[in-house]
Specification:
Blueprint (H helix, E strand, L loop, with lengths): L12 H19 L6 H4 L18 H7 L3 E10 L10 H6 L15 E13 L3 E4 L1 H4 L4 E5 L5 E10 L4 E6 L21 E6 L7 E12 L9 E4 L11 E3 L5 E8 L7 E5 H14 L5 E2 L2 E5 L2 H6 L8 E6 L4 H4 L7 E5 L2 E2 L5 H7 L6 E8 L2 E8 L1 E2 L17 H4 L1 E5 L2 H6 L9 E6 L14 E5 L2 E2 L3 H9 L6 E8 L2 E8 L2
Antiparallel strand pairs: 1-2, 1-4, 2-3, 3-6, 4-5, 5-6, 7-8, 7-10, 8-9, 9-12, 10-11, 11-12, 13-20, 14-15, 15-16, 16-17, 16-18, 18-19, 21-22, 22-23, 23-24, 23-25, 25-26
Amino acid sequence: MIIRNSNKPKFSSTVIALLIVGIIAAVACGASGGKKNPATKSAKQAPLAPLSYDPNLSFAPLVEKVSPAVVNIKISKKVKATGFGGPSSLFDFFFGPRERGFGRPDGLPDYAQKAMGSGFIIDAAGYVVTNHHVVDGADEIEVTLSDERVFQAEVVGSDERTDVALLKLKEAGKLPTVQFGDSSALKVGDHVVAIGNPFGLDHTVTSGIVSAKERVIGAGPYDEFIQTDASINPGNSGGPLFNLSGEVIGINTAIARTGQGIGFAIPSDLAKGLIDSIREKGKVVRGWLGIVFQPLDEPLKNVLKLKDTKGALVTQVNEGSPGDTGGLQAKDVIVAVNNKRLNSARDLPSMVAGLRPEQTYPFTVIRDGKEKTLNIKIGTMPDDIGSPNSTQEKTDTNKKLGFSIAPLDAMSRSQLNAESLSGGVVVTEVNPDSHAAESIQRGDIITEVNNMPINTLESFKAAVSKTQIGDDMLLRIYRKGAWTYAAIRIQ
């Protein structure tokens, strides 16, 4: 049915009757001296003010202002051919890369794999922010500006955990820039604009709103993404998410493959400190507390006599760690870091990581039902598991197994969400050309070898020593919160 508006007012008999009743009621009220019923007085409420909306709202001035600082990134890296016909083989297209020894001739030449992404300039000298996964392993990086100028770039440093990277354009100067804004000021429903290079389509602009904040998508310990319905597609990675003031409040980094109109961005408040650290030291230096913690639930809240579940319950304090030196104890509930309150336990890793090492900050804890402030001097987080400078002990098993391992210490348990495990060893490196690469991943925790429990490096070495080249070995693995088995062949 189509309802059309008419310019002429029409009154039905029912409306006329209601008007008459209203007039009679008004007369009656006047006759009673204008007294109002107190019961009806409290029921009246002021109407809600209508929300203002500008039908002529345009993002054109914003886009014109910030677009010159948004760049397209093209990378090239050498990849080993996987079968007949090189990387475009129809067999590989439909069935995936072939396993070693199955129709794969030796001596195939490497080929250059191309990829694209986005980024934005934060310094006129040519510093560009993008995603780690955009430039990871790149042999050549080419950056194109909106005015079609092209620069070669090199990686200053990057961080896999938070997926941020900083590039430096060669022979660049006096370039247009954009600035980071305050992502904590964002509200769900705020307008945002994304600019990037989706599917290679140069400087594409999309808009939407903030759909959610502090969204957890299983990406790691610093998992608190901005969710937006501004269209984000492959090629947008590393590009900026702007507020209406033209400030970068997020770095577009992920999409929901099973849904439409759902994208995720790294909050600017998290990225700013990381980028500063990379620029100053060539790598990310995070604050470190040296504790293990867990989220609160209703039963714990009631037992500990807390007002709510907004906090992190300390379950272990590593001896000699900054938390230990600063006076933290097991069963403390951390509710604020540097005077900023936690909304949940998952806020704690990113809040601590953003603190400057060797500086002292106040930590508010609840101990025995009372709030207490501890002044803790923050340490420097040990290097990433498996990084070249890692101080963790390793065992050189690459030649025989195709991967390396390290002890599962308290820090590793916290990083890998494996606080419940009492034993095991963690995989730190995997040789991509080994048989193990098909089923073993960096960060896997091995708890059994051929049904033998593994608690230490020594027990792992003992189990491996009982195997010979050509033997198959069964591993029980804890991976990202789930258990799995893997069989690998000793080489």
